[in-house]
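Structure (tokenized):
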């Protein structure tokens, strides 16, 4: 069943009129009257609908059922050390599938690749297109934003009021990591800061710890930058979903 994220909501008759980019996507997929689709209102509801009418000007959907969204109970931001080449595209796609609410590129001291100002606008546009596509493919109710590049200082300020996790290869054991994952029930804002290919500078780790971040281990293996964030997101997703389901 195809899934779409819309800005439109049902009217008083229980119908949704679709136009704009979502309609273009429907036309590309050749959606026809009688087909079942799911749509999200970009807020906290998912609607199960039947297509009543569709042409190049609009589509009309009848809402058959409405349910609470499948979004994670905490807003998780992935702060990703700026990577080389096209790794960011893979990271964004998979982070969105795993439930991240936002992806933030970060310019850290040991980044091998540095953000090029003249290319950033076009890259941000492409990254946000990838985020939308991944959100619809994975049945998300909202489209996570990919934001402009931040510095470490900006990340620490942005993460205030929540839990910031910093996976680091020199962190002690897995007990601290397990303790964090077992105590997420009341967390509503969680950040994950991932180092670049060159790793974190020790001074950056010290700044994070001084700001109240939890420096954690992901095990004895050293993970690539494009792997570390996804591993952490996977563990968070599982822990948050288990807390919500009471298991």
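Design, position by position:
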């Amino acid at each position: 069943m195809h899934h779409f994220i819309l800005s439109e909501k049902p009217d008083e008759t229980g119908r949704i009129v679709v136009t704009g980019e979502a309609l273009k996507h429907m036309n590309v997929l050749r959606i026809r009257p009688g087909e079942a689709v799911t749509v999200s209102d970009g807020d906290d509801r998912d609607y199960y609908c039947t297509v009543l009418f569709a042409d190049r000007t609009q589509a009309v959907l009848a809402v058959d059922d409405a349910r609470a969204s499948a979004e994670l109970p905490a807003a998780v931001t992935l702060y990703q050390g700026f990577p080389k080449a096209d790794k960011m595209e893979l990271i964004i796609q998979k982070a969105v599938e795993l439930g991240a609410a936002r992806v933030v590129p970060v310019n850290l001291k040991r980044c091998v690749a540095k953000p090029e100002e003249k290319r950033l606008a076009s890259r941000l546009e492409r990254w946000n297109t990838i985020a939308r596509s991944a959100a619809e493919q994975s049945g998300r109710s909202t489209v996570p934003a990919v934001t402009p590049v931040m510095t470490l200082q900006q990340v620490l300020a942005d993460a205030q009021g929540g839990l910031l996790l910093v996976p680091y290869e020199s962190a002690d054991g897995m007990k601290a990591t397990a303790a964090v994952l077992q105590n997420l029930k009341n967390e509503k804002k969680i950040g994950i800061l991932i180092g670049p290919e060159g790793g974190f500078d020790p001074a950056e780790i010290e700044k994070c710890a001084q700001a109240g971040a939890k420096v954690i281990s992901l095990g004895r293996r050293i993970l690539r930058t494009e792997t570390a964030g996804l591993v952490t997101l996977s563990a968070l997703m599982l822990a948050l979903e288990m807390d919500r389901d009471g298991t």
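Reviewer-requested clarification: The chain is about 35% helix and 25% strand. The CA atoms of residues 84 and 113 lie 5 Å apart.
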